[in-house]
Amino acid sequence: MSKRRSRSKAPELDSRCFVQVRSQPSLGVETSTGTTWVGVDQQVGHGSADALFELTAEQYVGELVWDSVKPGFVGECWSGKHDDLRLFDPRGGSWYPEQWVPARTRMFPPRVDGEIWHHVDALGEAPDSERATVSRALAGGTEDVTVDAGRVAGIRFTLRGDPAYPRPAGLIAGLGAGASRAQVSAVLGASIEADSDVHGLEGDRVRLGYEAEGLAEVILERPAAQPVPDGPMRLLLEMLGEPEGGFAWTRGVELLGEVRRRWAVSSGFPRHLLEFDCGAEVQVEDARVLSVRLRPSPEVDTEPWAAETPPVRSPRWPGTRDETRRAFGAPLATTGRMELRRFGTCDLMTEYSSHEADAAVTELTALPTGVSVSHRIHRWRSGEFTMFLDALGQPEAHPLVLAVGRLDGVDLSFRDGRLERVEIGGAVSRAERFAAFVDGTPARPTREELPFGVPTYIGEHDDLRDFEQGWIHVHARDGVHITTIAVSLEQPEDIDVHLWLPHRDR
After folding, report:
1. Domains and their CATH numbers in the chain
2. Three-state SS for 59?
3. Is the pLDDT of residue 411 over 50?
4. Under a CB-based contact definition with an 8 Å cutoff, are residues 175 and 214 in contact?
């Protein structure tokens, strides 16, 4: 849970909503007007695409299909020659517009470009969810939505007539109204079944309707998911979306072994990476499980993660493509060295060493449908501080809060039934809490030995660091040796500190 931030005056809301359709180059639609745009490196550079400039419909579709926006046009925008086309830039104090919907990085390599992916992400969501709202905004009220059991089960788009999708050629890049079946097959691949107009799209179905002039409608459908398989994979899938420390978590930990390290990406990113004894990696955010990643070895059933860690008896996961298909059934989608399966509301991505049938399994990644994670997540600092930050703002009975409370030498403070503050180093503290707070910290550390780098604010006896999820306050009674460390949801008050400045405080 992110910390609370106070503002003296609420800013005026910008009603525009910028939906990114492609990230490289950055392209999208401002949905309140239907204006299409391209991102230009104007202030930050290095691929930031921080300034957004209006494109014509032809430029937008051409860029989706052929990367056709001329470098000269982008350069002219950068140099200020098209200020009349500028929709947004970061000079107002924010890197992104107030209402900004980024394009989600797809876990399964996409075959096509276009606005279709924001509509795919609306499948399985509640009709009033953020993703379903974005889908409706892009369609401009031209969509026909089917709802089943309170979830979006299908979406129909008409490409001709009234009402037609506002940007027919931008829905699926390369396919506009009137496209032939041959053109469709070239973009979407062969149909799923012979003599049908149903194609696969990342595990979902695209049912196409034709008239005499060619392609006339696009219908998105989500097929029924396979039941969750029995066995050890079931335990991992049941962890997804569940609270860290809860019942499903406990069962999964019995399978994976204990958590060896808890990594933070940075002070400004709330997602954390947990490394297990067996080599598995679990990503968590808001104290809930986002993904479980395994890297099984087909030769052995156990693998010590480090010399000082005893081996963990791990299940025998499928070792080859053929074994995976026997264990989990045929995939919904296949591309290159990856296969996608869907069990309930969870996806299982399997990666192989090659395209061959006997290729070895190199990775198994389980995550909720519609969620993306990066396996190249940065490992910045590790330690119990990540657990304390994740627990902030959670209810008193949350499993992670209970787990923090069971640690020796930890003092918890609550407000309105939610965790407000965690302190170590007080009267009941034990030295190992300092050493475990950030890995690499000695049991009796000085302020300089806490490996966080420079603080946000500094004083004679105190260091204060601003994290996305809360604040970390380090107090040294003698000005040198750490006496207490407190992790709190809100910025501590009544401490004598000033903003750290390199010319003064280095």
Report:
1. 18-101 (no CATH), 116-221 (no CATH), 232-368 (2.60.460), 383-505 (no CATH)
2. helix
3. yes
4. no
